[in-house]
TrEMBL record, chain B:
The lineage of its organism: Eukaryota, Metazoa, Chordata, Craniata, Vertebrata. This is TBC1 domain family member 19. It comes from Tinamus guttatus. It comes from the Eukaryota. InterPro entries: Rab-GAP-TBC_dom, Rab-GAP_TBC_sf, TBC1D19. SMART domains: TBC.
Amino acid sequence: MQVPECRFREPVRVPRPALPPQLQEIVFRNFYTAFLSVRVQRAQGPRKWLTCVSDYRLMASPHTEEGAQDYFSLLRHQMLCDVDQVTAVRFILRQPSPVWLHFTIEELQIYPPSQKSPQKDFPSWLSQLAPPEQPAVLHRELPDPEKVSAEAQQMWVLTEVIRARQAAARIGRFDVDGCYDINLLSYT
Amino acid sequence: ISLHKPEIKLESLKEDIKDFLKVSGWEKKLQNAVYSELNVFPSPCHPAAPPEHMKEPLAYMRKAQGSWEKRILKSLNSMCTELSIPLAQKRPASEQKELLNKWNEMGTDEPDLTLFRPVYAPKDFLEVLMNLRNPNYENGEQPSFRNHLGLIQVPLKVKDIPELKEDFSELGLNIGQLGIDDSTQVPPEFFENEHVRVGQKVLAEQDSAAAQQYVRQGCPTALRADLWALILNISNQPEDILYYEQLKSNVIQHNLLVDSLIYKDVKLTASNDDYYFVFEDYLYQVLLCFSRDTSVLEHFAYSSATPPKSYIRGKLGIEEYAVFYPPSGVIPFHGFSMYVAPLCFLYHEPSKLYQMFREMYVRFFFRLHSISSHPSGIVSLCLLFETLLQTHLPQLFYHLREIGAQPLRISFKWMVRAFSGYLATDQLLLLWDRILGYNSLEILAVLAAAVFAFRAVNLMEVTSLAAAEAVLADLSTLKVMPLLQIFLFATVT
C-alpha cells in the first residue's frame, strides 16, 4: 500500500522591519493546511529557532473539507514560548493527505499587543458573565447605597439600549413607496 | 403591574424583578427564546471572517451556488419574457375584491397554468450536485481511492455508523420509541402511558429544551402540535396574527409570477396526493403569504443562497430602487408545497400553520435545495447516504452501480422532500419528530440507506434502473422507526 506522502511548504520568512517586537496574535485564513507549526527567532538569547506553536490542528481530518478554508487566531497565551523581541517567524505547514493539489495559509496578519485584531461588536457587559449571586440579606442593615445605585444604573442602561433597538423593528415592506413594478431579475 | 406596589424597595428591586419573571413565566419564555436563537444561528465566526464565510466557508461551493442561482434567474426571466407576464403586478380593485372573497377556497380556481413550467425539478438539481468539484482536489479520471464511487465527488466529512449511533443514541434498541413500542401488540403500561405522562409534564413546564429532548423518542399524536410549537418557539401572539393578516393583504394587493408557480406546484403534487389533497386551500394560504414575507430574508445570513434582486421599472441600477423578488427571496421549485402539506394535519389555524411552516423552512428545509458544506445540507446528506450504503451494503451498492442504477438517483428525491409524499403521514410525522429532536437532517440520509437495506434482496435481482425504481416506488407501507433502529443498531458491521 502506498504510504501517503508528507509535504512541507517552505518556511515563510518575514522581513525584520515589518515584525512587531512583541507578538500578541497571529490571524490567518487556512487553505487546506492540516497542521501548523510556528517557530520564532528572538533578538536576545541563542540564535536557534524556538517552537511557539507545535502541530496545531487546522483540519479535523486531513482528507476532508472541515476547517479547510476557515479563519484562525493564535494568541500569545496559547504559545509555548515567550514571543517578545521576535526577529523572525517561521511557519511550517503540513498536509499529509495526497488528495489536495495545493495547501497554504493566506491573509496572514500579525498583531502587536497595542493593536487588536478586528473584534466583534459586543457590548462589554455581555462578555462578562455575572457570577451566580447570593440573595441579598436584608434583615437589619441597609444595603450599600453605592451598590444599589450602580445596579439601578445598569438597569437603566439596559432599558435605554432596548429602546434604541426598537426603532430597527421590521415593518415588512417589500415595495418602494408603494410600487413593486419591477424589471427582470438582475444577475449581478 | 405587580411591581407598582409601594412595598417594593429599591434595594431588593433586582431580586424582585427576577422573582417576578420566574412567577409570571417570562423567565421560561426568555430561556426558550434564547434556546431557539442558539439552535438556529451558527456559532459566531472568527471576527476576521467576512459575512459570506458564515453563509458558506468553502469558496468553490459559494461559486457553485451562485451559478445555480443564475440559472434559476435566467429560467424565470425567460418565462417572464416568453409569456409576456410581468414578475409583479398590482391587482385592479375588482380583482382584489374577488380574491378576498375567494380566500378560503382558492383551490376551486382553475387558472390556465399550461404555459407555466416549474423553474426546476429535483433531478435538475441532482445533475448540478453531481458535477460539483473542488478545484483543489485531485479529481483524476482513473478510479482510485480519491474518487468516490457514488455520484457525489466532493470530500465532505460525513459520519460513520459508530458516530451516528452515538448521536442518535435515544433511538437505541433498549430505549422506548413511539413508532415501535406503541404498536398494538405492546401493552401501553410498558412505555406508552409513561411517555405520554412525561410529554404532558414537558408541555406544562413550557420548556423548549426539554421538549426537544423528549421528541427524540417520538411525540404522542395528541401532544405533537403543541410540542413542535414549543420547540420552534411559536406561540401565535396577537402580533403574529396581525403580521399574517398583513401578508394576506400583500397577496391581495399584488400579483406575482411566482404565485402561478405555486399554483402549478400545488396542483401537480399535493392535490394529487391521497393524503394531502384535502388541504389544498390551506397550501395556497400559506405559500402565497410566504412569498411576501420579508422576515424570511433574515435566514440568508446563514444560508449559502442569496435572494434574487431586481429594480423598480425605469430605475435600473439605482440602489434606492433595488428590491428582492419575491419579497421572501425564495423561488419555489417542483415539490415545494410538500414541505407544508404534512403540517396541515397538525395546525388548522392559518396564522399558526403559517408560522410553523416558516420556522421549519428557515431552520431546516432551506438546506435541502441549496449548495453548501453544512452537515445537514443536501450535499452532505447525499454523500452520507452513499457512504453508508457503500460501507454497509457493498455488494448491493456495486451491483446497482454496475446496472446503471446509482442509488442516489432514486433516493435523492426522497431526501430533497424530507420524505414528504413518499411515506404514510403518521410515519412521516414520526420522522420529522426526530428532525426536530436532533436539530439535524442527517436522519433523512440514514433512513434512505435503511430503506435500501430493507429491500436489498429484491434489489439484488434487478437488472436495470427502471426495475430498481419500481422496487422502491412505493414506500407507503414502510415503518420508519424499526428500519432506522435496525440499520443503526442491529446491522452487523
